[in-house]
Write a structure and sequence with these properties.
Blueprint: E1 4-11, E2 17-24, E3 27-32, E4 37-41, E5 47-52, E6 57-62, E7 66-72, H1 77-88, E8 106-109, E9 114-118, E10 122-127, E11 133-137, E12 140-144, E13 149-153, H2 156-168, E14 175-184, E15 186-193, E16 197-202, E17 206-210, E18 214-221, E19 230-242, E20 245-254, E21 258-262, E22 271-275, H3 276-288, E23 293-294, E24 306-310, E25 313-319, E26 323-327, E27 331-334, E28 340-344, E29 355-361, E30 365-372, H4 376-385, E31 390-394, H5 404-412, E32 415-418
Amino acid sequence: MEILTLSDCFLKSKTDKKATVKISRDGIAIKAEGGEVYTMEKNEVKDAELFHGSRKMAIRIFGNAVYEINNVDQNYIDELKRMFSEYFKISLYVKELEIADVLCGELGINGQKALEFRSTKTIFEVPVEDIESVVDIRNELSISLKDVEIRFVSNKKAIEEIKEGCSSSVDDEIFKMEGLSLAYPRGKFNLIFFRDYLRLVGSSYDHKVYYKSVRQLYILEKGYIRDEERYVVACVDPPIRQGQTRYDYIVASFDDAEGEMNANDERLKKEYSGLHSEIFTEVMETLCVIKAVRSMFESRDGMRCLRCAIKAYEGQLYPLEDCVLFLPKAIRLGLNEISLVEFSRINLSSMQAKTFDMTLFCEGSYTFNGLSKDEFGMLEQYFHSKGVKARSEIIDDGASSDSEEDDYESENDSMVVDSDSYDS
């Protein structure tokens, strides 16, 4: 049996792998570095094309999957054409690419499920499955890949066709939630769940979040214990992007609305009912294979959080099992990252101040202002129980003088006391 062997090739993937390709009358086999073997039987080979790649020639084979092989020696072109014609009844040709007029052209989804930009020749094409998000901004269409964003100027009708093509060419939806409010990034989005990823579709932005990229999940009451208004927070890596801003956290804001929803996937229940926040959390836990973290902290007035502010942002601070989390502008500080906690304005009388400040030192420092003095004991106990070093700044507000000497003494009346000294 005649077998053509292509050595020293590269199989395109997230990181190109060195590979050897063998083509025979019975099919095609690709052995990648590391031992992975990919095979296509004769009847599975549907189409193929040759083009000039980054390494010599490249051949793209469409079968049970799409395989792109780079670094094919040009001397094999005639032999490849003959074998594909004889064995697979495919007319293999060298696809010409546009290298001069690359700024204007037509954009569309071709028959190979790829987004193609072309004039008289193909300028470039990207498999739909590699597209992370499609964003419609006025008359611009923004296509986001892993590390690249490409923008096209087009009319509204063409943009809608591309957005529809990029969504419908990939998968069927298995679950959907409409009109969900996000507190971070801000906006209203429809959440469409597919088999391997979630799409957040807003009026201006469209994001794709793979379930495997969700690292942590939190469901937190906005106020009092058993409060039905909640935040659900997903930590994602890589982050989603809107313009030049990257968001490592997606913060969904839920009121006390209830409802019934249907799902279409063997991993999910057929029907869900109850609070929207609980339904969303249960679906995310199942698809992301992750357990949502809930707050066990209880303040003196029965809240799961502490109201405060950081810089110009007001919100809630949640002391959790392994971190402190500020919402809705998400700031997460792991307890193992915090080297020191410093409380200030603690000993001032209630006439002077009803709140205190807290600074957390890690790689940088984060100062939370306006914490209620009633919560100081609970917060101090929380950090002590987690083994985080804390100290309090004690200020003698009775020391005052107009003289430089008294000013100096007043400055030295301000001292720092480790919270450990109170433990006894």
